[in-house]
Specification:
The chain is mainly alpha-helical and about 475 residues long. The chain has one domain (about 65-425). Helices cover about 75% and strands about 0% of the residues. The chain is elongated and about 115 Å long. The two termini are about 40 Å apart.
Length: about 475
């Protein structure tokens, strides 16, 4: 027992000495190193910033709500000549569009060098790169390629879904789709683009300050060429503008024809369910989805085109084209809205008349009932009153739902138009938060190391000599 006790005592004494030595050495080590800056809070703030920014990145995407979903870029059988020339697969389509835009830029550069000569090639290439018209023209052409396939994709992809709640056969829908995407699309697209093409040709042939308008009055290129004629580069630009206006006419055709198809089907067919169920579940909403997604594309195209107009100071035809596109989008939404309201108007008014008749009958019955004491008479009177109240509530519900028809869809159209911008801003904020967090961590590390370097060295205590009077 005594040996075990002495052994425990020795072990406990040794542990206390080690702990005591550690506690003594830690303040001495801290005094030697000097005060260090705690970077923990800064690093934790950076980590929290990143977690907050990337927290919602794992949410599942809704293909129906995402205009830029890859399925919208897939090729659908149609008679539009340009879409049939381009590849059907998404990756090959974008490669073809990028290569086309690059080739267009290189052709423009070659034509300019052929006009100015090949003496000072490096200088002329640099002047061509600084030209605003050729800086954005390939980008605008690529945006046209994106919108070309997306406009067709959202209309063909949502065609069957729009009429899922109507009593229309699939064979009839297929006939409408063949009419919608048939050979007439080429003629209609050309007809809608013809006024803008004609104005471009007239402006090209008759404008005295054509080059000044396209390239700027202070452009070095304008000072070197003969502005009274039209050179090869100018003719190539005209051909490129005509090509873009043809694609613009295709957008206009899809929006107008899509609204006409909806209007035609709504006149010939009814909803499968009763009007109260249609209004409650908003079964008419798929009819507005196409217009809402087209609104997103119009907004996206409008932003890029407005930037092109502002940067290059182009003619008023580009502004007129944007205004017409917005007007056609509003007309398509208005036609769909009026078609749905016209289809439901008769059913709503019929249901309201039935409810009013039921209310009048209950009121007349309540007026003829005599006040006879008894439970059965009270129960019958309560039943009639409840029936009257139910009829009034249903009347108010139907009228409210019918009058508010299209309001949420219009707000959805506005929000879908802003969706691309919101998506881009969300990505910017997310990656900006990551960069800010990295900057905070780097600044904290640099500041901490700088503080340690600037701290004056401490004077180390000399060890006590044996026999000295040091305490």
């Amino acid at each position: 027992m005594s040996e075990g006790g002495s052994h425990d005592e020795t072990r406990e004494t040794r542990m206390l000495q080690e702990v005591g030595g550690t506690l003594v050495d830690k303040p001495r080590q801290a005094a030697e190193e000097g005060p260090s800056k705690d970077t923990g809070p800064v690093m934790r703030a950076g980590i929290k910033l990143v977690e907050t920014a990337f927290r919602g990145s794992r949410r599942e995407r809704d293909p129906d709500a995402d205009v830029f979903d890859p399925s919208n870029f897939r090729q659908v059988k149609n008679s539009w000549w340009l879409d049939r020339l381009l590849p059907g697969r998404v990756s090959r389509y974008f490669i073809a569009g990028f290569v086309t835009c690059t080739v267009v830029w290189l052709i423009g550069l070659t034509l300019r060098l052929s006009v100015l000569g090949f003496e000072n090639i490096g200088h002329e290439i640099w002047q061509f790169i600084k030209d605003r018209q050729w800086q954005l023209q390939p980008l605008l052409l690529l945006v046209h390629f994106v919108c070309l396939r997306l406009f067709k994709g959202i209309y063909s992809r949502n065609f069957d879904r729009a009429f899922v709640h109507l009593d229309v056969r699939q064979s009839e829908l297929d006939e409408y789709k063949r009419w919608f995407l048939g050979n007439r699309v080429n003629f209609m697209a050309f007809g809608l683009a013809l006024p803008f093409i004609a104005w471009e040709i007239i402006h090209f042939a008759t404008s005295v300050d054509f080059y000044q308008t396209m390239f700027g009055a202070t452009s070095a290129y304008v000072q070197k060429i003969d502005t009274t004629g039209r050179n090869a580069e100018a003719w190539f630009l005209l051909m490129l503008w005509i090509f873009e206006w043809l694609m613009y006419g295709y957008y206009c055709y899809l929006m107008i024809s899509g609204a006409l198809v909806v209007r035609s089907i709504m006149k010939r067919h009814d909803f499968k369910d009763s009007v109260d169920l249609v209004l409650t579940e908003r079964q008419y909403r798929p009819l507005f989805n196409v217009t809402a997604q087209a609104g997103s594309l119009v907004f996206f195209f409008g932003l890029i085109h407005a930037a092109y107009m502002f940067y290059t100071k182009s003619t008023w035809t580009d502004g007129a084209g944007l205004i017409l596109l917005v007007l056609l989008l509003s007309s398509a939404f208005g036609m769909t809205w009026s078609a749905v309201r016209g289809e439901l108007r008769g059913q709503v008014f019929g249901a309201i008349e039935e409810l009013e008749a039921s209310y009048r009958q209950s009121r007349e019955k309540l007026g003829t009932m005599k006040d006879v004491p008894g439970i059965e008479d009270d129960i019958q009177r309560i039943q009639v009153q409840l029936k009257m109240q139910l009829a009034l509530q249903q009347l108010d519900y139907l009228q409210t739902k019918y009058e508010s028809l299209g309001r949420k869809e219009f707000l959805g159209l506005v929000f879908k138009m802003l969706a691309p911008v919101g998506s881009v801003l969300a990505r910017v904020i997310r990656w900006g938060s990551l960069l800010a967090a990295i900057g905070l961590g780097g600044a904290a590390a640099i500041t901490g190391s700088a503080d340690r370097q600037q701290q004056p060295p401490t004077v180390k205590e000399a060890p006590a000599q044996p026999g000295s009077n040091a305490p």
